[in-house]
């Protein structure tokens, strides 16, 4: 395995450490920019910039199990992804990633060492002054051949790391259950993500979400239409295709430690958030969200949702988390 400059490792460790602490569907990332040293894992040859569109262009039409499985198993599409040339490895013990899944023993004594092989692709996206790199996380547990389980898009400018977003997922679980995310990046650099979940239900199609790269290099939610917006998880005002002003968001929260709150039955919170030009700003207030569940399906009963006690707050400035305080 080729050696990579220790300074670059330290850089990635710092970035993704910060990111993993702040990352949820509701929160922006705190990623302080640093310049990589010589021997950077990032290719800067503009001749290796790929053209758009790229990804699964018809994901909005794939709404059934019979239509999604052929896409996931499409060998030609997987060849296109692998053609990005994931050649530069990053050691797992020097990179902390969000959304890591637990691997249940026994598979091997060194399962944690084998679980993730992380590589940066040589081919990337050119976006004005920004370069967007694909980072793949390979799964080698229980399978004869490593395969890409997760893929992130990493935003950089002048060699400085700014933000990242997971755009692909192929997570195989026990009893045939699985979680998938497929992506498409169109000619305008709008990123569409479609999540699928195979469970006892047996299939759950989540709403398609879009993201855009701001002039700051950060990723933010993108909406097709301006004006009032509301779904099962969030409501607020959309301006210039981005969140603006006060928003209410009721989602599962990865930062909530249920062991500290024995009276809580789930990790959902009621968030009073604020945005400016699509970026987190001001003080965010996280309250406990109490809700009842359907005994047969296990799904939340939306009209039973109630805001509970204040758990913690976060303070943001231009999308950067500056302070978190628990109560």
Describe the structure.
This protein is mainly beta and 327 residues long. 12% of the residues lie in helices and 46% in strands. It has helices at residues 6-22, 65-72, 75-82, 111-115, and strands at 54-55, 86-90, 116-127, 130-139, 147-157, 160-172, 178-185, 191-198, 203-205, 209-213, 219-222, 227-230, 234-239, 242-252, 268-276, 279-280, 282-293, 300-317, 320-326. Strands 1, 2, 3, 4, 5, 6, 7, 8, 9, 10 and 11 form an 11-stranded antiparallel β-sheet that branches. Strands 12, 13, 14, 15, 16, 17, 18 and 19 form an 8-stranded antiparallel β-sheet that branches. A hairpin with a 2-residue loop joins β18 (300-317) and β19. The model is unreliable at 1-38 and 102-115 (pLDDT under 50).
């Amino acid at each position: 395995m080729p050696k990579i400059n220790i300074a670059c490792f330290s850089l990635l460790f710092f970035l993704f450490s910060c990111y993993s602490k702040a990352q949820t569907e509701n929160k922006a990332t705190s990623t302080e920019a640093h310049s990589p040293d010589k021997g950077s894992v990032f290719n800067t040859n503009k001749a290796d910039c790929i053209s758009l569109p790229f990804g699964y262009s018809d994901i909005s039409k794939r709404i059934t199990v019979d239509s999604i499985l052929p896409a996931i198993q499409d060998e030609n599409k997987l060849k296109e992804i692998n053609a990005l040339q994931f050649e530069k490895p990053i050691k797992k013990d020097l990179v902390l990633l969000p959304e890591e899944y637990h691997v249940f023993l026994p598979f091997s004594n060194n399962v944690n060492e084998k679980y993730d092989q992380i590589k940066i692709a040589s081919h990337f996206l050119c976006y004005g002054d920004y370069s967007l790199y694909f980072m793949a996380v390979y799964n080698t547990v229980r399978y004869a051949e490593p395969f890409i389980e997760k893929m992130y898009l990493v935003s950089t400018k002048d060699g400085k790391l700014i933000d990242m977003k997971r755009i692909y997922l192929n997570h195989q679980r026990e009893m045939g259950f699985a979680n998938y995310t497929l992506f498409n990046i169109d000619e305008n650099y709008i990123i569409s993500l479609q999540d699928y979940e195979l469970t006892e239900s047996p299939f759950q199609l989540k709403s398609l979400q879009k993201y855009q790269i701001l002039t700051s290099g950060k990723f933010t939610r993108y909406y097709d239409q301006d004006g009032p917006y509301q779904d099962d998880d969030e409501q607020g005002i959309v301006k210039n295709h981005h969140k603006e002003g006060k928003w209410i968001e009721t989602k599962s929260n990865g930062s909530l430690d249920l062991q500290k709150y024995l009276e809580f039955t789930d990790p959902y919170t009621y968030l009073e958030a604020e945005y400016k030009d699509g970026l987190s700003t001001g003080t965010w207030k996280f309250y406990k969200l109490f809700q009842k569940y359907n005994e047969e399906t296990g799904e939340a009963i939306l009209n039973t949702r109630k805001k509970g006690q204040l758990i913690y707050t976060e303070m943001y400035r231009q999308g950067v988390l500056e302070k978190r305080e628990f109560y």
